[in-house]
Specification:
This protein has 14 helices and eight strands. The protein has a single domain (26-315), classed as Alpha/Beta hydrolase fold, catalytic domain (Rossmann fold, 3-Layer(aba) Sandwich). With 321 residues, the protein is an alpha/beta fold. The chain has helices spanning 16-20, 67-75, 100-113, 126-137, 153-162, 164-169, 171-175, 181-201, 209-219, 224-237, 242-250, 272-276, 298-301, 303-315; strands at 31-37, 40-47, 52-56, 79-83, 119-124, 142-148, 259-264, 286-291. Helix 3 packs across helix 4 (126-137). 43% of the residues lie in helices and 16% in strands.
């Protein structure tokens, strides 16, 4: 890890290698390795050969949330790579650099480090926010864009400020603005809150107990809780700051790559109406897919349906509106 102090309340019980370099279900064996990008080191899990599909996790998870899609994408003829974002899983915990513009540079830097000219980005939750950002800021490195459970950043900002119900649904983000208390809560009782959040945010098809155990353990790696919520602190605290206003202006740039937008109808974190308006920021084929009966984690709640939708779209040479 790069140098950063361990915030109070962090458990030393879990260590990165044992907590995040996991096998995935089935016979396929992922390759774990580290790549350098944007001044930091990032852990990736890789499977398959073909056009690159880079998978970006959200909160409170790490690369393993894409275990089902890694296998499905590799079987479909893609080079599937799931990375741990800065500060999470097996990637470096740096003392700064958690604003979305820099995190997007992490992502495009990993694409370059993998020796590829571009990638299809697939992001969930925070990973989706960053995928939107990367597609707007570095369009030459993004071949296609697929986002789950996250509106476009400008849509997210507007909903947070103007939609009382959406703001209430994101109450955990407002709670993250307090110093140290959120870190302590996330790591207390071996990460029990992580499991509760995932259960509360899921639809009827909950992730299995083993998955929850893995997410809880990974959150207890020293400094992970602090780093995991730093992007959300920036997103709120910068709303009226020059850097936040500048970022919002930069995100006026339209997304000009084919975009697939996936959402669960029962998502209690991101309201459907908040996500559904994101197509106005895309000047390319845009496809909206609402999964009936799924919550905030559609790729885990119904991995077959999610993977099928994703792969069919990736293989469609001319995805239409």
């Amino acid at each position: 890890m790069t140098g950063s102090s361990i915030p109070p309340g962090q458990s030393p019980a879990a260590q990165p290698a044992s907590a995040v370099r996991l096998d995935i279900p089935g016979d396929a064996a992922v390759t774990h390795r580290d790549v350098a990008a944007n001044g930091a080191r990032f852990h990736i899990a890789e499977l398959g050969d073909g056009p690159l599909v880079l998978l970006l996790h959200g909160f409170p998870q790490f690369w393993w949330t894409w275990r089902h899609q890694l296998t499905a994408l590799a079987d479909a003829g893609f080079r599937a790579v799931a990375m741990d974002l800065r500060g999470v899983g097996g990637s470096d915990r740096t003392p700064r650099g958690y604003d979305p513009a820099n995190l997007a540079l992490d992502i495009t830097g990993v694409v370059r480090s993998l020796g590829e000219p571009d990638a299809a980005l697939v992001g969930h939750d925070l990973g989706g926010y960053l995928a939107w950002t990367a597609a707007a800021m570095r369009p030459k490195l993004v071949r296609r864009l697929a986002v789950a459970s996250m509106p476009h950043p400008r849509r997210w900002r507007a909903a947070m400020l103007a939609d009382a119900r959406q703001s209430a649904a994101l109450s955990h983000i407002w709670g993250f603005q307090r110093p140290w208390i959120p870190e302590r809560r996330l790591t207390a009782d071996d990460g029990a809150l992580v499991g509760k959040l995932i259960q509360d945010w899921s639809g009827p098809r909950l992730p299995d107990d083993k998955a929850l155990e893995n997410y809880r353990r990974a959150m207890c790696i020293p400094s992970t809780a602090h780093c995991s919520i730093e992007p959300y602190r920036w997103m709120v605290r910068s709303l009226a700051r020059p850097d936040g206003i500048q970022f919002n202006r930069r995100m006026k740039r339209p997304v000009r790559v084919p975009t697939l937008h996936l959402h669960g109808s029962l998502d209690p974190v991101i309201r459907t109406r908040s996500a559904a308006g994101s197509g106005q920021y895309v000047e390319a084929p845009y496809r909206w897919r609402l999964f009936d009966g799924l919550g905030h984690f559609p790729h885990e709640e119904d991995p077959v349906a999610f993977s099928t939708e994703l792969i069919n779209w990736l293989k469609d040479p001319e995805p239409d509106r």
